[in-house]
Design brief:
Structural class of chain A: alpha/beta
Number of helices of chain B: 15
Distance between the termini of chain B: 29 Å
Radius of gyration of chain B: 23 Å
Strand order of the largest sheet of chain B: 2-1-3-5-7
Number of strands of chain A: 34
Number of domains of chain A: 5
Strand content of chain B: 5-15%
Number of domains of chain B: 2
Radius of gyration of chain A: 32 Å
CATH topology of the largest domain in chain A: FAD/NAD(P)-binding domain
CATH superfamily of the largest domain in chain A: FAD/NAD(P)-binding domain
Oligomer: heterodimer
Strand order of the largest sheet of chain A: 10-7-6-18-29
CATH architecture of the largest domain in chain B: 3-Layer(aba) Sandwich
Structural class of chain B: alpha/beta
CATH architecture of the largest domain in chain A: 3-Layer(bba) Sandwich
Distance between the termini of chain A: 28 Å
CATH superfamily of the largest domain in chain B: NADH:ubiquinone oxidoreductase-like, 20kDa subunit
CATH class of the largest domain in chain B: Alpha Beta
Largest sheet of chain B: 5 strands, parallel
Shape of chain A: globular
Shape of chain B: globular
Helix content of chain A: 25-40%
CATH topology of the largest domain in chain B: Rossmann fold
Chain lengths: ~675, ~375
């Protein structure tokens, strides 16, 4: 072995357990504060320990070799590695143990780094604590049983919730990899918010032109089952084995027959605000959100219709030449088993009505960014001409207010909505292109243009398109005649600014899609952050996963995101889902809660303690081992001692506590 | 074994021998006559309320059948046997001694030691003998505090009123003890008092000769909740109330209603008698085999169940407030088991409240054997 290896100390062998202790220096991380030699010495004298040593970097190849060799040479029945957190190298050493013929669950880590050397000064007391921690781990190993990981089969379908660009991309990627996909979208068409946009920053691609091919691809893909006008009603099961129940509302129009002639909408006597145009136009009760909608069909909005039961109008059916309209269409319940779930429920804009200080909701010419997108869009209510909602005039002075509802911890949302700087620059620039004699003002706090070509885009808007950027907050927006007056302060010059504008566009904060809270509950995901966005399992290292195994997140459901980020994350989530779906079997740690059925009275105290909903109680409690993460909340609550954790029984915990608290006089001298 | 045979009361013609009682059913083809084979039983009370003695009547008519199959050799509550009668019996001559009551006086110690010597099997009968029982709540005070309270400050021991020839009342032990902390106990029939079903179960086993492993407790290993008909909806503790503060819903689990019901930590076997009657279980059948310290187990369970709205920092003080409504911790959680589950603090030990934690007998006290009169 390496010459740097510490001396092995071999006390006389004993009957019973033969435990080896391996103390890691972790360079100076541990050895700088803990006298590792003393720890190894003290443990050598501990009952049950037949081999104890220390080494520079136990996780290095030679370090692992040291462990493996000792297991074979000393016929070890258990191993304790006193090193860093088990979340770091537990798998490393368990694998090493397995390679040397020891059941991996007889290898335990004593964390003397995070729990000891990193949080204390060097000295005998620190060494003493390291010894106590290691002794406790020896006691745990002594009580451990060899275990086998649980093998779980899984379904091979993937559910994607949300048919925006993130959901479409994820569905396409998973389907391309050869797996069946259910793509569920609550509105009558896929496409999401991206379909509403006019152009995209910073390239000014026509949004629909780059989106619709993907929509069509998703609709035509043989392995994607498109479920529009549908909602996920119930999710049960667990990692790899979810059972989902989807409710598909009736559209009352057969998409196979509908030829999009539009006669039905023309004769429909009902007029309601068109959501797709953010209420800037009207639609009939029977409608198509936009011409390229997928599936390509009209939809009869039951809520808006004069009445289906009893039928009160039936004009649409009368004029439909192809007989596509079917008033007897029923809702459908679709039940499927899926292995993975990708949640891509997207975002909404923070309601502009919340911005009382900007007169939003009261003044018709104070609109939000998506409304302005529709006004800019060639397929929008104004046919792509910039006209303001109140009187249809072309606005000559337009004020764009950034951070409307964002970065405002007192009144609104504390976070930055990330995409507003860029889309406001785009709005102002497009406005200047469409109304060359108009003037555009942008009130901003900071310009955040991190991204490929973003900074250059904003610079172009400022310099080439002569948009006036004013650094400061808007104090008040009010109406004066047919003008909307904006009062603000330019904090760079310190001067008050008043603009008599024709139109004000608010870059509203991005908020999670409504209903995501309910959906998260259905998915048993305790994973919404304080603002209601889906929370990732780890903000840096597991950004696509949630704490619910097999549930991944994509797009703006996680946080405000622009299109490239959403698409990239969608492909990432798809890769995660594919990895899960392609595994021959899923492996789950066997250190889970178990019920002694001879003792369990079925009192049910355990079940509500389980954060993973792994426990059901009928006659006796039953633990779904796959859902169980081994947290032990149930075992702690169980009053009759019927619930215990594999390899962490009450007896083991008490033995560990005793080992940790026992006097250690012989080692504190150094 | 000759002496034993000689000491056998008249009418017991031949060898019972030192072997334990063997099964003899009514229809048994055994050559030994039924009369000859009737096992001898003793029933004794120490610091007891008398409820355990009465509990036999609870068995109903079957008790006639049971008692007709045994020979009662010593039962102060029924007859008037004296200590001398017991002393005269040969060691091991009694087949089973059922002892109820807490061990509170020196005389209790002497009598149960005597019974242990004379009986092949000793059964702790009832919660007092099993765990210490309600009278052992006295252990929360020292012997001196108790005597001072009852007799007044500055009391002194005087000579027996009838002169030195008369027996003095027995001394109080420093603490009340369960039977197992004084003599070896073979079996336990728990309860306050033991429910009829469990008494019947014991006699069935005893009379059939199919006794379980020594140490067996004649009650279920599963908690009471198993036999409780009450329904659980939402397992959440939102408040804590005492029985006099609430007229409980007749269907719903009492714990869910805020009553501290010890059902989840207590052995079944009583058919959940108290919860069925609307009173929370107080734990008289003792903790389930792996509950450990039942009070701690219950506190862990309550702390897990308590909810004051959404989880989080703000909920903690509110949840603490709910848990603070739990008054009289020891009386609620350890009503029957103070000497079994509540070790004394060092201060208490120094104050003179001493008992034996091990099953070894209490050492002889000065004055032991002084009392020679009737045991009853």
């Amino acid at each position: 072995m390496s010459p740097k290896s510490g001396d092995a100390i071999r006390p006389s062998s004993r009957h019973g357990p033969r435990i080896g202790v391996f103390v890691c220096h972790c360079g100076h991380n541990i050895a700088g504060t803990v006298d590792v030699e003393k720890v190894a010495e003290a443990l050598a004298r501990y009952p049950g320990v037949v081999y104890s040593t220390h080494y520079d970097y136990m996780c290095s190849d030679p370090g692992q070799e040291l462990v493996k060799r000792a297991i074979k040479e000393h016929r070890l029945t258990g191993v304790v590695v006193a090193a860093c957190s088990p979340s770091m190298h537990e798998p490393t050493f368990r694998t090493a143990g397995e390679e040397a013929g020891l059941n991996p669950y007889l290898v335990e880590i004593a964390n003397i780094r995070e729990h000891c050397s990193w949080v204390h000064e060097a000295g005998p007391a620190t060494t003493d604590k390291a010894i106590r921690i290691t002794r406790a781990a020896v006691e745990k190993v002594r009580g451990n049983h060899p275990l086998e990981p649980l093998q779980i089969g899984h379904a091979e379908k993937c559910l994607v919730i949300g048919g925006g660009i993130a959901g479409i991309q994820a569905a396409l990627d998973v389907a391309e990899a050869g797996y069946e996909v259910l793509l569920v979208e609550k509105s009558p068409t896929i496409g999401g918010h991206m379909a509403q946009l006019s152009e995209t920053f910073p390239t000014l691609d026509c949004s629909q032109c780059i989106l619709t091919p993907k929509m069509v691809e998703a609709a035509r893909h043989p392995r994607i089952r498109l479920l529009t006008y549908s909602e996920v009603e119930e999710v049960s099961g667990f990692l790899g084995n979810y059972h989902v129940r989807i409710r598909k509302k009736p559209t009352y129009v057969d998409p196979e027959k509908c030829n999009l002639c539009g006669d039905c909408e023309e004769v429909c006597p009902v007029r309601v605000p068109n959501e797709f145009d953010r209420g800037l136009s009207e639609r009939g009760a029977i409608y198509i959100p936009f011409p390229q909608a997928v599936p390509s069909s009209y939809t009869l909005d039951e809520e808006a219709c004069l009445g289906l039961e009893p039928l009160r109008c039936s004009e649409c059916a009368r004029v439909c030449e192809v007989g596509a309209i079917d008033y007897d269409m029923q809702e459908e319940i679709i039940e499927e088993d899926v292995g993975a779930i990708i949640v891509a429920t997207g975002f909404e804009l923070y309601p502009k009505e919340e911005m009382a200080e900007y007169g939003a909701g009261r003044i018709p010419d104070v609109i939000d960014g998506l409304e302005f997108e529709r006004i800019l869009s060639a397929s929008g209510p104004t046919g792509g001409e910039v006209r303001r909602p109140s009187d249809g005039k072309v606005p000559k002075e337009v004020v764009f207010i950034q951070c409307s509802g964002s970065r405002d911890p007192e009144l609104h949302k504390p976070y930055c909505s990330k995409i507003c700087c860029m889309y406001t620059a785009k709005h102002a620039l497009l406005y200047r292109h469409l109304v060359p004699d108009g003037r555009a003002y942008v009130f901003y706090i900071d310009i955040r243009a991190g991204g490929k070509g973003y900074e250059e885009f904003v610079a172009r808007a400022m310099e080439e398109d002569r948009i006036l950027y004013l650094r400061g907050k808007v104090a008040k927006v009010f109406r004066e005649g047919d003008k909307v007056v904006v009062w603000g302060v330019d904090t760079l010059t310190g001067k008050r600014v008043e603009v008599k504008a024709d139109l004000v566009v608010l870059a509203q904060a991005i908020v999670p899609s409504p209903g995501v809270t309910e959906l998260a509950q259905r998915l048993h995901m305790s994973c919404l952050d304080e603002h209601g966005f889906l929370k990732e399992a780890h903000p840096k290292l597991r950004p696509l996963e949630t704490l619910a195994g097999g549930v991944f997140i994509a797009g703006a459901a996680q946080a405000p995101k622009d299109i490239p980020d959403a698409v990239a994350q969608a492909s990432g989530a798809a890769a995660k889902a594919i990895a899960l779906l392609s595994a021959p079997a899923l492996v789950h740690p066997p250190e889970v809660a178990i019920v002694d059925e001879e003792l369990c009275s079925g009192c049910g105290i355990c079940a509500p303690q389980c954060p993973y909903s792994a426990i059901t109680v009928e006659e006796v409690a039953e633990v779904n081992e796959v859902l169980c993460e081994g947290c032990g909340a149930c075992a702690a609550a169980c009053p009759s001692g019927a619930m215990s954790l594999r390899n962490l029984t009450d007896e083991q915990v008490l033995a560990m506590v005793r080992a940790a608290l026992k006097e250690a006089a012989e080692v504190t001298s150094g | 074994m000759r002496a034993e045979d000689e000491a056998r009361p008249k009418g017991s013609p031949d060898s019972m021998g030192p072997t334990p009682y063997v099964a003899r059913h009514e229809n048994s083809a055994s050559p030994v006559t039924r009369h000859a084979s009737r096992p001898k039983i003793a029933v004794y009370w120490t610091g007891s309320c008398g409820g355990c003695d009465v509990s036999f009547l609870e068995v109903g008519e079957a008790i006639v059948d049971i008692l007709s199959q045994v020979e009662i050799v010593f039962w102060p509550a029924l007859a008037d046997p004296k200590r001398e009668d017991l002393e005269a019996m040969p060691p091991g001559s009694i087949d089973v001694a059922l002892i109820n009551g807490t061990i509170r006086t020196e005389e209790n110690v002497e009598m149960v030691e005597l019974l242990r010597e004379k009986a092949k099997l000793v059964v702790a009968y009832g919660a007092c003998a099993h765990l210490g029982g309600v009278p052992s709540l006295a252990n929360l005070s020292t012997r001196e505090e108790i005597l001072g309270e009852v007799l007044g400050e500055g009391w002194r021991r005087g000579p027996p009123p009838g002169g030195p020839e008369e027996d003095a009342p027995p001394d109080l032990l420093p603490r009340a003890l369960p039977l197992s902390q004084v003599v070896r106990v073979d079996y336990t029939v728990p309860g306050c008092p033991p429910p009829a079903g469990l008494i019947g179960e014991f006699f069935n086993a005893f009379l059939s000769g199919e006794m379980p492993e020594p140490g067996y407790v004649f009650a279920k290993a599963k908690a009471l909740c198993e036999e409780c008909p009450r329904t659980r909806e939402e397992r959440v503790l939102k408040r804590i109330v005492r029985p006099h503060e609430l007229l409980p819903d007749p269907e719903e689990c009492l714990l869910d209603q805020g009553l501290i019901c010890l059902g989840p930590v207590t052995r079944g076997g009583c058919n959940a008698a108290c919860p069925q009657a609307g009173m929370p279980c107080t734990g008289c059948l003792g903790p389930t085999p792996k509950a450990g310290d039942p009070g701690l187990a219950m506190i862990s369970a309550l702390a897990s169940l308590v909810r004051a709205g959404e989880e989080g920092e703000e909920a903690i003080p509110k949840e603490d407030e709910i848990l603070d409504q739990l008054v009289d911790l020891i009386g609620t959680l350890y009503k029957y088991g103070v000497p079994t589950f509540c070790p004394l603090s060092p201060e208490r030990e120094r104050a003179g409240v001493r008992g034996k934690a091990s099953p070894s007998p209490v050492p002889s006290q000065p004055g032991r054997g002084r009392r020679k009169g009737g045991a009853a």
